[in-house]
From TrEMBL:
Name by which UniProt lists this protein: Major facilitator superfamily (MFS) profile domain-containing protein
Keyword Mitochondrion appears in the UniProt entry: no
Molecular function GO labels: transmembrane transporter activity
Superkingdom of this protein's organism: Eukaryota
Gene3D superfamilies: MFS general substrate transporter like domains
Gene Ontology CC: membrane
């Protein structure tokens, strides 16, 4: 086990994903934890100007609880949708990077929109959380593919120990400190948005570096599908159907199935 852990730690790509995942956890989990308070302050009209109302009032507690469920539901749906798309297109890296970058950009607009519309701020919050968590499971699958399948458990253990434990603790604490010092969630949104963008750009850099290999693998799969399709065409046409693509394709480097 120690040998497998040492082998996983010796792979630079794993540390690239650890850095990206840490930034993601610090920002995305912070928003995730603070959503009920943010929504409560939106209902009280005090989000951007009055830190004394952090936590909200009891008169809006029921509405805040109900509204807080909406971003979580959107996050769950987007996670499933992106995982399905990543599997369908046999590509994981860009499916992680793009939603995270868009989430950071969206969250950075929270303060500007919140000054004019509480509804708009809630929409921004919901969209940002949905995009931030859209690639969560895909990120885990991509990171697990850095090492051989027999070492996937060790790899994910290292990732979780480095990112989830530390980032999950540090993120909410950082948010609380900023709110306590600056009396506003607007700066928090800018900081966390910047961290999300940075995390997404790191993963996008991996995609850009590996894209030529991914393109060649995709061409090879299409060529293999064309050969198989030609061999089955007569039988398919006789049965009254077309030549369907083959199922169960093996993943390439960007899908996380090959080792780095």
């Amino acid at each position: 086990m120690l040998r497998m852990a040492a082998d996983a730690c010796s792979r630079p790509l794993l540390w690239v994903f650890i850095v990206a995942a840490f930034l993601w956890v610090v920002s995305a989990w912070s928003i995730y934890v603070w959503i009920p308070i943010i929504v409560s302050n939106l209902l009280n009209g005090s989000l951007l100007s009055d830190a004394t109302s952090v936590g909200g009032g009891s008169r809006n507690s029921v509405q805040a609880a109900l509204l807080s469920a909406i971003p979580y539901i959107c996050a769950a749906l987007s996670l499933v949708a992106v995982a399905w798309s990543a599997d369908r297109h046999n590509e994981k890296t860009a499916h992680v990077a793009i939603p995270v970058i868009l989430s950071g950009i969206t969250l950075s607009c929270f303060g500007v929109v919140g000054r004019h519309s509480a509804v708009g701020a809630f929409v921004i919050l919901t969209a940002s959380l949905g995009l931030a968590f859209a690639g969560q499971s895909t990120l885990v699958a991509r990171a697990a593919g850095i090492t051989p399948p027999s070492q996937a458990g060790i790899t994910l253990g290292i990732l979780n120990a480095s990112c989830t434990a530390l980032g999950g603790f540090a993120g909410p604490v950082i948010v609380g400190a900023i709110i306590g010092a600056l009396r506003s969630f607007e700066v928090v949104a800018l900081v966390m948005g910047a961290l999300l963008i940075a995390a997404g750009l790191i993963v996008l850099g991996v995609f850009v570096k590996e894209y030529p290999q991914f393109r060649e693998e995709r061409r090879a799969r299409r060529a293999a599908d064309g050969v198989a399709c030609g061999g089955r065409r007569a039988a398919d046409e006789e049965a009254g159907g077309g030549c369907a693509p083959r199922a169960g394709r093996a993943g390439g480097t960007l899908s996380g199935a090959a080792t780095a």
